[in-house]
Design goal:
Elements (H helix, E strand, L loop, with lengths): L1 H14 L32 E4 L4 E4 L48 E5 L11 E3 L4 E6 L1 E3 L11 E3 L4 E3 L3 E4 L11 E3 L4 E4 L1 E5 L11 E3 L4 E4 L2 E4 L11 E3 L4 E4 L1 E5 L11 E3 L4 E4 L2 E4 L11 E3 L4 E4 L4 E2 L12 E2 L4 E2 L1
Antiparallel strand pairs: 1-2, 3-5, 4-5, 6-8, 7-8, 9-11, 10-11, 12-14, 13-14, 15-17, 16-17, 18-20, 19-20, 21-23, 22-23, 24-26, 25-26
Length: about 325
Amino acid sequence: MRILMLLAVVVATACGDSGASNVPDAATCAIGSLGCACTAGGGCDPGLACDSAQTRCEAISGCACDTALSCQAGCACDADCGGSGTCVCDTSSACETECACDTGCGSRTICVAGNSNACSNTDEMWTGSQCCVSGVSACVPGDSNACSNTGEHWTGSLCCVSGEGQCTTGDSNACSNTSERWTGSQCCVLGASTCVAGDSNACSNAEERWTGTQCCILGATLCVPGDSNACSNTDEHWTGNQCCVNGAGVCTTGDSNACSNTGEHWTGNQCCITGPAKCVAGDSNACSNTDEHWTGTQCCVSNVTACVAGDSNSCSGTGEHWTGSLCCT
């Protein structure tokens, strides 16, 4: 009897996952978006349909490149990758050529799922199994109705857009201004370097674009914690949730009194330094010369490549910076 009971437990454990849903946890996956749970009424975001067998949202026309039960990073419409409209295969700041939704690769030719009827316009070539679109920066979920404007290409499965920027979650009402393109599922903002949490009231100034769910900032920027009072100066953008500083090369700990000089930006929580810099241990007395920035807790030195052990006497030549703890060159 004990053997039979043990066998039953082993079988139940082994088979328990066979009927498990591939839908990601609702806490990290927005209901109605690609790869995420359908709404209670079986609804999904525009361009997606509810797969009743998986109880998750997938591309309406299917996903030809999705050939396995696990996430395939090079397949932009793979619902197994989950997410809330973000690009799951874009895992670094470098261009990942196999990732169709990586907007950091610049203008290129991208081959993705589609069909011969849709893939028949200028700059589109149907290979017999995929649609190759030239002169685009990314291919993301969408639908044929929305993906029909200048700079947009509907492949039959995905919407490919031209121009460098960021594609993220949003809605058609908010994503309707200059430099914004609504694909039917995502909002692509031309010229944006990052998109972060925020709100429509705060994200309404020049170089800010509200997508309906996120605030995208035009130009090179770093976004860190802060507050609206501190984050209100030139090159600073309060999104409603974060402080984005244009041109900043690094942000680190500090305080408002120390972080108040030229090339320094106090966000309300961190000190951001304009341009490339290295931030290391030091003290305010030593960290007070040209290209040196005392944040209140660290010494950030602009235009150096390394900081190593040394002493103040030796670290005093041209191009050398003694922070109080290290020598930066």
